[in-house]
């Protein structure tokens, strides 16, 4: 059900004074529409954080980042929608084991795919090979993220065009097994930890499993939280203070995590903000997902997000004028809900984006 007041707000635009403050798109996919990529220099947004999702677009993201280094922060990752196309040769016991294309797809897809369906799918790529390639991209681009990665319980694979008749549906009954999605996600998160890079994370209808996946990697690295009793003591009376900035090296998880177009029930925000979590969690919102479909609970969610953990994104697949409209729409909606002047929303989310991508220490050192 549409809300006319909200729809009107989404048609608002940002004037040039607000764009000049620096609007940062925390998550988008312009390489999905490469013929419009040359328009990137015309866009008023200061920086686009562009996501790779599958085999075909890893190098496209790299190419665009090389062409527009002042406007692009690249992100390299494998989206859960395509996770079936990776063969997990990194799991325990997989070393030296070979598996056929048919065996692989029957093991990772639900509802027993037919031989014709499997035949239409590409040969699976070894997960280890993808991780190596991603590491190489991260080494080439020192500011690059890992993403888009995550879990999705609702996505169904499309039927191959060759199998769709006049009475057939476009979507097949097949989903990717959650255990396989988790393995693909876990290895990418470990790489992000190894390279000390932030990650942009997708989560749809799998919010509990997503949190459990991170919790598994957080285990043994949780922060020590001071009790109310010890907080009454002097600042030097407690070892292992949660605010310690001591660098203890790479962890098996990203140092900073963006939960993009966050759509979980609001209580999950409280879960992700548990002070024992050893990574910094950011919440990004978009017009397309959070306002277009979830506006009933958006105000409630927004009220739970700390000011310094808030990001904005377009989540758009095209670097057109629509990208600016989407960003303007979510900026105005946040401003209205939080009773902020739009300039504060732009400045706050811009500062948060810089800290998310570079880390607060590096941001200060760079003078950002």
Automatic annotation (TrEMBL):
InterPro entries: Metal_Hydrolase, Metallo-hydrolase/TatD-type, TatD-like
Gene3D superfamilies referenced in this protein's UniProt entry, alphabetically: Metal-dependent hydrolases
Pfam hit, one: TatD_DNase
GO terms for MF: hydrolase activity, acting on ester bonds
Region Disordered: start-end pairs: 227-256
Name by which UniProt lists this protein: Metallo-dependent hydrolase
Species, as recorded: Arthrobotrys oligospora (strain ATCC 24927 / CBS 115.81 / DSM 1491)
């Amino acid at each position: 059900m549409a809300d006319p007041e909200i729809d009107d707000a989404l048609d608002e635009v940002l004037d040039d004074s607000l764009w000049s403050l620096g609007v940062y798109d925390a998550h988008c996919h312009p390489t999905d529409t490469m013929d419009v990529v040359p328009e990137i220099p015309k866009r008023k947004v200061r920086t686009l954080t562009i996501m790779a999702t599958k085999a075909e677009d890893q190098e496209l993201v790299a190419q665009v980042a090389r062409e527009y280094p002042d406007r692009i922060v690249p992100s390299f990752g494998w989206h859960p929608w395509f996770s079936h196309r990776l063969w997990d040769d990194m799991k325990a016991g997989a070393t030296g084991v070979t598996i056929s294309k048919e065996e692989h797809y029957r093991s990772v897809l639900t509802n027993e795919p037919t031989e014709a369906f499997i035949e239409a799918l590409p040969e699976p790529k070894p997960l280890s090979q993808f991780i190596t390639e991603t590491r190489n991209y991260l080494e080439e681009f020192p500011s690059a993220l890992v993403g888009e990665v995550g879990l999705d319980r609702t996505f169904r694979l499309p039927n191959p065009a060759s199998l769709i008749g006049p009475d057939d549906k476009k979507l097949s009954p097949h989903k990717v097994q959650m255990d396989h999605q988790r393995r693909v996600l876990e290895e990418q998160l470990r790489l992000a930890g190894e390279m000390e890079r932030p990650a942009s994370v997708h989560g749809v209808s799998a919010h509990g499993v997503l949190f459990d996946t991170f919790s598994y990697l957080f285990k043994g690295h949780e922060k020590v939280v001071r009790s109310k009793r010890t907080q009454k003591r002097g600042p030097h009376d407690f070892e292992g203070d949660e605010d310690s900035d001591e660098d203890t090296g790479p962890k098996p998880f990203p140092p900073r995590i963006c939960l993009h177009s966050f759509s979980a029930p609001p209580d999950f925000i409280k879960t992700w903000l548990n002070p024992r979590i050893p990574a910094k969690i950011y919440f990004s919102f978009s017009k397309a997902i959070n306002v277009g479909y979830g506006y009933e609970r958006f105000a409630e969610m927004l009220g739970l997000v700390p000011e310094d953990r808030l990001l904005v994104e377009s989540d758009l697949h095209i670097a057109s004028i629509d990208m600016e409209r989407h960003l303007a729409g979510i900026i105005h909606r946040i401003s209205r809900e939080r009773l902020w002047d739009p300039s504060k929303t732009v400045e706050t989310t811009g500062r948060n984006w810089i800290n998310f991508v570079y880390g607060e220490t590096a941001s200060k050192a760079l003078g950002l």
